[in-house]
Design goal:
The chain has 209 residues and is α/β, with parallel strands linked by helices. It has nine helices and eight strands. The longest helix has 14 residues.
């Protein structure tokens, strides 16, 4: 799947499905593929450089946009040359990172960039605002999802699409995040992937140009 095709597929999928599968164990890859019609994409948080291309190729073959959490994958360099290799050889739809400089370089290389932020206290809100002044990723992910009222506070200073995840156990908890303005939720719980259909979301997601 070409970068342009995977970008379009992901944002088109977010208009229909509000669930993203976070894969932390290889055994859940087949489950995500089986439920791909209920997902807008997958976040890969497992593996190492030796198996990574095989995983990504498998998702690309099934036209499932796959994002790599760069801090969770072994042996992968996140300098510019490592990201260039990732974009040209591994070919995911995009990346997830907590690091502003990594997001900046990945975006230059045509990858969809999702920057992850942790909301531990009010200082976390300030860190998001400061980071977005330096580089604007394509989307942001807020962790954990169990503080849905914070989504509205973040939306007050950015128009970027918001994904939220972490500590989700029930479908109702995921729906509460969407009701508070999240564009999608991410979960590592396959039971939530199965029950993802029919969750109403927010307005249409903007596409990356």
């Amino acid at each position: 799947m070409k970068h342009s095709d995977s970008h379009e597929a992901f944002f088109r999928g977010l208009d229909r499905h509000r669930m993203i599968a976070s894969i932390k164990e290889p055994k859940h890859i087949e489950t995500a593929l089986a439920l791909r019609d209920r997902l807008s994409g997958v976040f890969l948080l497992t593996g190492h450089i030796g198996v990574l291309k095989g995983y990504v190729d498998l998702f690309n073959e099934h036209r499932v946009p796959v994002f790599l959490h760069l801090e969770k994958i072994g042996g992968l360099s996140t300098d510019y040359h490592g990201l260039d290799y990732l974009a040209k050889v591994i070919k995911p739809a995009g990346i997830i990172t907590t690091k502003t400089n990594v997001a900046k370089n990945a975006k230059k290389l045509g990858l969809i960039t999702i920057q992850r932020f942790f909301l531990v206290d009010t200082e976390g809100l300030e860190n998001i605002a400061k980071s977005l002044c330096q580089i604007e990723p394509d989307m942001i992910e807020l962790m954990p999802a169990r503080i849905p009222e914070m989504i509205g506070m973040v939306k007050s200073f950015t128009s970027l699409p918001i994904i939220t995840g972490g500590l989700l156990f029930e479908r109702s908890q995921a729906q509460e995040c969407l009701d508070n303005g999240a564009n999608a939720v991410s979960s590592s719980n396959p039971e939530l992937w199965q029950r993802a259909d029919g969750m109403p979301g927010t307005k249409r997601i903007r596409k990356v140009v």
